[in-house]
Every structure is written in C-alpha cells, then in structure tokens.
Amino acid sequence: LQYRYSRSPKQIMHWIKYVTKASFRDITWDEPLANALYGFHNGCFAGTWDGSPKWKLTGTDKKFNALLKVREGIHPVSGKPIKWNKEPIPWALVEAQNPVDIGSGYYLLPPIRPPPSGRRQPTNLIELPDGDYRKHTNTVRRLIDRAKNVASFRSDYESYS
Predict the structure, then answer these.
(1) Strand residues in the chain grouped as ranges (E)
(2) 41 and 76 co-located in one domain
C-alpha cells in the first residue's frame, strides 16, 4: 500500500483520476473486458438524480446507528459534537487502544482514562506558620542551622565548665 497526501487541487484531481481508472497489468488475462474498460473511470457520473432515493441509512438498523451520528458530526456515545483533527494518527497507535470497528473506516476508541483522584497538590508556602523551617530560603536555612549549632556548642561548653 502506498500513501501520499497533497493539498494542491491539481495533484488531488490527478490522484482521483489515477485511483478510479480501470487498468490491467496483463491484457491477456481477459482481453474483451480490458477493451470494454479502456478509458472508463469509476468515479465519473453525469446528470442529477431527481427521483426518490434508492437506498438510505435509517435509524432502524442498530448496526448503522453509530454511522448515522458520525455522519451528522455527533459522537455516537457521548452525543457531543465531533472535533475533527486534520493530522492523521499512525495506525499502530490506534490499534494499541483496541478500537471497535463501526463501519466505513470509522473506529470507536475506548474512553480516555480520567486523571488520578488522589493527586497531591504542592503546599502553598504562604499557608505555613511563621516559625516553619520550610518557609525560609536555603541561605536563611543554613544561617539558622549554623546559629543553632553555635548555641548548642555554647550551652554544652557552659554545662561542662
């Protein structure tokens, strides 16, 4: 399978004509059919259809209900409007999520996991009490530790003398 993407209308039209043309690599396989299909393009149509529709999707077939909603731009499960992404997603990433095929090349992915409920929020330093050690900068903490060590040394010195 070869896949290419283009934005140019000329290139898009070229790809449509190329993809929809009937062709044989080996005419000897079925010469009458190859001659009948010469110049035929599968995507061509002429005129307009004024009659009643020959077939249409109705809501009676449960198999196609999801497709009806997708066709209207509504998510088949949540009922919210679909926000289409123009970036194609690699098939390996889609396949890793165990998609459900709903037909016509559309797949239903499982719901996104909600964030963990017991997340810890970082403490706000303003809410700490004034004497709390964590409220000071590292430089002030070192000075406090040094002052405590000097005071401890002096008290030990005085207790031995």
Answers:
(1) 100-103, 106-108
(2) no
Domain that holds residue 76: 62-108
10-residue block means of pLDDT along the chain (161 residues)? 72 76 71 73 62 67 75 86 83 89 82 76 68 81 91 86 70
The helix (H) or strand (E) run that includes residue 13 is helix 9-20
Point out which residues pair with 100 in neighbouring strands. 108
Buried/exposed 62-100: b ≥16 CB within 10 Å, e otherwise: eebebbebbeeeeebeeeeeeeeeeeeeeeeeeeeeeee
Cβ(18)–Cβ(42) below 8 Å:
no
- How many domains does the structure of the chain reveal? 3
Question: Closest Cα to residue 111, out of 89, 79, 78, 82?
Answer: 78
